[in-house]
Amino acid sequence: MALDPQDLEGRVEDTVHFDEYKPKMGKDDAVIVATFKVFGKQPAMDLENFIEMGYDWVIDAETSAGEISEGRYIVFVEAERRSTYPQKFMSMISDLNNLTDVEDWKMMYFAKPDSSKNAVQKLSQDTLANSIPLSPKNYRDAQTAAIAIESILNTARVPRTKGDINEFRAFTRRPRD
Questions:
Q1: Is the separation of the CB atoms in 20 and 35 below 8 Å?
Q2: Domain residue spans in the chain?
Q3: Exposed (0-12), middle (13-18) or buried (19+): which is 172, by Cβ within 10 Å?
Q4: Integer Cα distance of 36 and 48 in angstroms
Q5: pLDDT score of 153 more than 90
Q6: How confident is the model at residue 171 (pLDDT cuts 50, 70, 90)?
Q7: How many CB atoms lie within 10 A of CB 64?
């Protein structure tokens, strides 16, 4: 069944979550999982089919087996963690604008549980590129840095508060001028 313009009007929430869930089709460091919340099982399945059939860069799209809240389902969209992801994803969002009534898309990247980085931001190619690790190495480096910092603070017996290392980043070398 093909979708017509505005077929998903009032059905898709305006905030897309990234890396909140583990991928089914690969490892965390190699696959980005984007999730859309959709009202109604059939509209969720329609969105799943639209994405899976329309974009060759999508590894897998799947609708949650059950409701996450009353009448709401999640559509999981898995793709390779690559530098081209933001451009491809925003192209898909542009197509979704014809099917939904969402005008201002937002995003939330789940850096880690209870992180202040989990704040809602405007969805754009730039925010995707600056928020999500776009290579397996960058993803692993971010995870390793957080673990190392936490270990150092714990070993030094520094008094801790919840979420106190959320703004630490892995060191990256800058090019010479």
A1: yes
A2: 15-135
A3: exposed
A4: 10
A5: no
A6: very low
A7: 18
The Cα 120–Cα 105 span in angstroms is 10
What is 47-107 written as a DSSP string?
HHHHHHHH-TTEEEEEE-SS-SBTTEEEEEEEEE--TTHHHHHHHHHHHHTTTS---S-EE
Whole-number Å distance between alpha carbons of 35 and 1: 22
Amino acid symbol at 146: A
pLDDT tens column, 82-109: 999 999 999 999 999 989 999 899 999 8
> Do the Cβ atoms of 89 and 128 come closer than 8 Å?
yes
Between residues 147 and 65, the one the model is more confident about: 65
CA distance 104 to 89: 15
Higher pLDDT, 149 or 138: 138
Give the separation between CA 93 and CA 15, rounded to whole angstroms: 12
In the three-class reduction of DSSP (H, G, I as helix; E, B as strand; rest coil), residue 15 is classed as strand
* 97-134: burial string, b at 16+ Cβ within 10 Å, e else: eebbebeebebbbbbeeeeeebeebebeeebbeebbbb
